[in-house]
Amino acid sequence: MPWSAANEFDAYVKKAEAQSVMAAGATIEVKGGLIHDWSAEAFVKDRTPEQVIAVLQSYERYREIYPEVTASRLLSKEGNRFRAALQLKRKKFLTVILNTEYDVEYQKVDEGRWRVVSRSTKVEEADGGDNGFLWRLNAYWVISAEPGGVRLQCRSVSLSRDVPLGLSWAVKPLLREMPQESLAGMLSATVKALR
């Protein structure tokens, strides 16, 4: 991963984390990479924030809940801080298997409102290659009780490689779609697990 892309990602994330609102969808070109910043939300009737937190913390069951997860395990837990390992399988024009690890913090903001921050600490392709399909992945959840149910908001900020000029017409649209589709799939699977 180019250090310039990593540094720009870190600066972008620092700025994004300071914001308290969800961002509109965007893919931002940086030197050597692409930052993908997407948000999605859903409302689930007759559920509570605590039920959402229980689903998000059930790392050993992620393979059953999330279609992109082929293996998962909890590495450690200390209070509201979790470390988890997930193996992700992404298939679009080719299949990529990623071994990833995350530091996740669950914060009860006030009664009926939670904030969850998940930051990748390791992203490696299972075959040992570095094609740059995903270098970093952070997720920011806001889970709020509302009359009649719970609102889930999720923002995903990820870093992937840029595409060589000759292939950009074919590959860049796919690299732009994958993070958005991944986020929508994750939110949809979380909602399904709550029903």
Features:
195 residues; alpha+beta; Alpha-D-Glucose-1,6-Bisphosphate, Chain A, domain 4; 8-stranded antiparallel β-sheet; 4 helices; 28% helix; globular
Folded structure, characterized:
The chain has 195 residues and is of the alpha+beta class. It has a single domain, classed as START domain (Alpha-D-Glucose-1,6-Bisphosphate, Chain A, domain 4, 2-Layer Sandwich). The chain contains four helices and eight strands, in the order αββααββββββα. An eight-stranded antiparallel sheet has the order 1-2-8-7-6-5-4-3, with helices on both faces. The chain is globular, with a radius of gyration of 17 Å. The model has no long low-confidence stretch (mean pLDDT 87).
In short:
With 195 residues, the protein is α+β, with helices and mostly antiparallel strands. The chain contains four helices and eight strands; from the N terminus they run H-E-E-H-H-E-E-E-E-E-E-H. It has a single domain, classed as Alpha-D-Glucose-1,6-Bisphosphate, Chain A, domain 4, CATH 3.30.530.
Count of strand segments = 8
The overall number of domains is: 1
Tell me the span between the first and last alpha carbons: 40 Å
CATH hierarchy: architecture:
2-Layer Sandwich
Described by the principal axes of the CA atoms, the overall outline is: globular
**Residue share in helix:** 25-40%
> Which regions contain 5 or more consecutive residues with pLDDT less than 50?
none
What characterizes the major β-sheet?
Answer: 8 strands, antiparallel
CATH class value:
Alpha Beta
Q: Let me know the average pLDDT.
A: 87
CATH topology: Alpha-D-Glucose-1,6-Bisphosphate, Chain A, domain 4
% residues in beta strands? over 45%
Strand order, biggest sheet?
A: 1-2-8-7-6-5-4-3
Structural class: alpha+beta
Oligomer: single chain
The CATH H-level superfamily is START domain
Individual helix count: 4
Order of helices and strands: HEEHHEEEEEEH
